[in-house]
Structures are given as structure tokens and as C-alpha cells.
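Quick one, C-alpha cells below:
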């Protein structure tokens, strides 16, 4: 599903397309190598850290990346243990026109396939197939509501509070619970915490949706080539009180002229990295106020496919945010008898306390209600646990109640021209996206280059 497609189309009717920098065509005016002995340490080998490192390395800086995990990529993480590339984090290129990920994907030889949002079937409880007219009418009405709900919101009220007060009948309707879950919660965050004023913030690229078929981590591997990356290095302290910045990792001290911190917002919220001196109050406030969503993904495989030959299968149970949307991976990879489903917000967090068997039972109860009790159980399942993952503590940022758009710029603000910050949560126009993370790395690299 296209991130923000539904919200942005409802507001303007026209996707927003901006020209953006890439590593090969950045805000730096030329590709001249800068003679320098300046050193840069980058904390985190996600796409933001890698894009910053690659640009700085190509400009002649001495760059080292410290990565806490045993591989590069961060939330660009692909599991191939079942013979299918299961992207645990980013899966789609959200709008291919002008999107820097489109170019990167080609350079990295990441293969992808078009996913058709209109290729879908929607089922209600009891396996009742919903007519396209009913679904489309509700979807169109959602667009209309999104066009005006923020005008009736307030800085202290959540999206859920305002929506439920204005549309109490819809709030209890199963189809509407699904639409709110998969069109809003999936793209943003917990509806009871999502800002009723800022739920529609963020830009998008035009063009179709493309889902990675051989793994989104191919981009990370491409960016990482020829870079100095130290794996399994957990940073615990950054001391920028002196001329050189000291970074403590695994009880080792490294020094550099500059440091770029690219850890996810969830890690900043958890205060697992100590800053000396303490970071400015404006940045502390932004870390606290901007929300961190949780979306967990589940890949299930079977020996043969029993489901509809469409791209998306939806199911509308009474409970919200719970295995209500299935991506048919066979449509983009004919050899894969696999479905991918999701859990959002609080239910996503709840799944992390459930066993594999419990998760499978819950998913299968929905599929059996659609296709009958005789369908087989899956042969395998892969899953994510982003909330309890100490390298992320969540999936991506969103505009929670109390968030101000200035907070994203505050998160991006450098300190003393020595400590810089990148990551999707620092990109005011493209927060919560892989392309936003990528662009943030280029942005911070350019800041350091401009200091020379």
C-alpha cells in the first residue's frame, strides 16, 4: 500500500514531486575531492549513515562507521532463510518518480515489481465478500473526511478522539476500523496518540508503487562497498566537550573531528547513548514529543496457494490493527506461495509477547473465516519484533499529539558544528520513509563538507 497516498490524494488530488539530491547529484555543486585530514565517525550503518559515509568518503574524508548489529542496513533488513526475500523493514519504493531510492535500486541491482492497489478483495466476518462499490464508497468518504478533520482538531486531541466524536457510527463499523488501521495507523502511528492537526504532514513522490523482490538490503550492501565499517560496536557515550569528539563503544574510545548520529528515534528515546554535555533542551523536547510507531510484519509460506489471485486481500474483524491485510507475494514472485501480513500499534507490540504458535493461530483464524476450515496451516513463518529490538525500539516516527513540525528540524540540528544527526526522524518532508533517511544522510554530509 502506498504510504500517504490516501491522505495526500484526499487533500490535493495531485501527488507532490520534488527534485531531490542523490549521491551522484547532490546539493554540493561539484564532485571535487576536498584535500582534508578531517575524520568522521558515523554511529549506525542504516541507509542514512551509509549515504552520509559514502558521500564523505568520496570527498576525501576519513570515515568510520560504528554499527551495533552484525550486518549493515539497520531497518533495511532482509531475511532469506525460507528462500524468499522477506524485508523485515522497508519493502516498497513509495512513488518511483524522482525518488532517490529508484536510482539507488538500479545501481544496487535491486529487483522490484509493481504492486497494484486496485487488485484487491475485501472480506467481512463469515467470509462474506464485500462488493467493490461498498469498499470504494467508504474509501472515497475517508478521503473527504481526511480533507477536513484536521480543521476540527486541536493540539491536545488525538486523531482517534476527534474522529470518534465526529463519526461515532463509523468508529464502530468493521470496514471503517480496517480503513483507519491500514490507511492511517500503518502510515502514521497509534490513532489514540496521532495528532489531529498534523496527521497529513509529509510529502510524497509521484509514480507507481514498487515492492522489492530480491531484498531491500541490496541497497545497503551497495552503499557499504569500500567503506570502513566496524560491526558489533555499540556506542554508549559521545563526549563533544573538547576539540575532538570522543565516542565510547564496547569500552573502547575513538576520536574524530565530527560525529554523525543516525540511530533511530526509538534509541534516542531510550537514552541508551549518553551525551556530554547534555544535548540542547530543544532536541530533548523533540525526542520526547515526536512519536515512534510500531508495525510488525509476518511472512507465511505454504506448499500450494489457496487464496485469491489478487495483490491484496483484506479482512475486517472486530479488533483493529490485527492481521487484517494480506499481501499476496505470489503476484510479484510466482514461485512464492506466501502471504505477508501486519500488526500495527499496540497490537503489534502485543504480538511480541506471543509465541509463534499463538501468532499463527490468530492469523489462521482470519484466513479460515475467509477460505474455510480445511485450508492447511503454513509450513513456515517469519516475523519481526521491532518494539523490543534494542537497535530500533519501534518502526518509524510519526506526528504524535504534542509534536510540532519544528521538532523534526530540531532533531536535525547540529551541535557546535561537531555533532550531527541524521535518520528518517530528522527529515521534515519525508519522515518515516527509507528515502527520507537516505536524504538526511546526504544533508548531514553536505553540512560537514561545507565547513571545509
Amino acid at each position: 500500500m502506498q504510504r500517504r497516498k490516501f491522505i495526500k490524494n484526499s487533500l490535493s488530488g495531485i501527488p507532490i514531486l520534488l527534485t531531490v539530491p542523490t549521491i551522484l547529484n547532490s546539493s554540493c555543486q561539484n564532485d571535487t575531492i576536498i584535500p582534508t585530514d578531517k575524520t568522521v565517525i558515523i554511529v549506525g550503518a542504516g541507509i542514512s549513515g551509509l549515504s552520509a559515509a559514502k558521500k564523505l568518503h568520496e570527498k576525501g574524508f576519513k570515515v568510520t562507521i560504528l554499527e551495533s548489529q552484525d550486518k549493515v542496513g539497520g531497518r533495511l533488513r532482509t531475511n532469506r532463510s525460507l528462500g524468499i526475500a522477506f524485508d523485515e523493514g522497508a519493502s516498497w519504493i513509495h512513488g518511483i518518480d524522482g525518488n532517490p531510492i529508484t536510482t539507488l535500486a538500479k545501481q544496487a541491482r535491486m529487483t522490484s515489481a509493481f504492486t497494484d492497489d486496485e487488485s484487491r478483495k475485501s472480506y467481512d466476518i463469515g467470509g462474506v465478500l464485500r462488493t467493490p462499490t461498498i469498499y470504494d464508497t467508504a474509501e472515497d468518504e475517508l478521503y473527504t473526511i481526511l480533507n477536513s478533520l484536521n480543521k476540527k482538531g486541536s493540539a491536545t486531541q488525538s486523531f482517534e478522539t476527534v474522529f470518534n466524536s465526529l463519526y461515532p457510527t463509523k468508529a464502530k463499523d468493521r470496514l471503517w476500523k480496517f480503513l483507519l488501521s491500514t490507511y492511517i495507523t500503518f502510515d502514521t502511528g497509534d490513532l489514540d496518540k496521532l495528532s489531529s492537526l498534523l496527521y497529513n504532514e509529509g510529502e510524497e513522490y509521484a509514480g507507481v508503487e514498487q515492492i522489492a523482490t530480491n531484498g531491500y538490503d541490496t541497497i545497503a550492501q551497495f552503499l557499504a562497498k569500500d567503506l570502513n565499517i566496524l560491526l558489533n560496536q555499540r556506542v554508549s557515550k559521545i563526549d563533544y566537550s573538547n576539540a575532538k569528539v570522543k565516542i565510547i563503544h564496547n569500552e573502547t574510545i575513538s576520536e574524530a573531528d565530527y560525529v554523525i548520529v543516525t540511530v533511530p528515534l526509538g534509541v534516542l528515546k531510550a537514552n541508551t547513548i549518553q551525551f556530554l554535555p547534555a544535548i540542547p533542551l530543544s532536541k530533548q523536547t523533540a525526542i520526547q514529543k515526536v512519536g515512534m510507531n510500531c508495525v510488525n510484519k509476518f511472512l507465511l509460506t505454504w506448499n500450494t496457494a489457496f487464496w485469491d489471485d489478487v495483490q491484496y486481500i483484506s479482512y475486517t474483524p472486530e479488533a483493529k490493527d490485527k492481521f487484517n491485510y494480506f499481501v499476496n507475494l505470489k503476484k510479484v514472485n510466482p514461485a512464492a506461495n506466501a502471504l505477508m501480513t501486519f500488526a500495527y500499534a499496540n497490537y503489534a507490540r502485543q504480538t511480541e509477547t506471543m509465541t509463534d504458535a499463538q501468532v499463527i493461530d490468530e492469523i489462521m483464524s482470519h484466513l479460515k473465516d475467509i477460505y474455510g476450515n480445511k485450508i492447511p496451516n503454513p509450513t513456515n513463518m517469519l516475523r519481526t519484533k521491532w518494539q523490543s529490538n534494542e537497535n530500533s525500539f519501534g518502526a518509524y516516527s510519526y506526528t504524535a499529539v504534542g509534536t510540532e513540525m519544528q521538532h523534526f528540524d530540531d532533531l536535525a540540528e547540529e551541535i557546535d558544528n561537531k555533532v550531527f544527526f541524521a535518520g528518517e526522524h530528522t527529515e521534515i518532508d519525508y519522515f518515516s520513509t527509507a528515502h527520507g533517511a537516505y536524504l538526511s544522510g546526504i544533508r548531514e554530509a553536505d553540512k560537514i563538507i561545507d565547513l571545509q
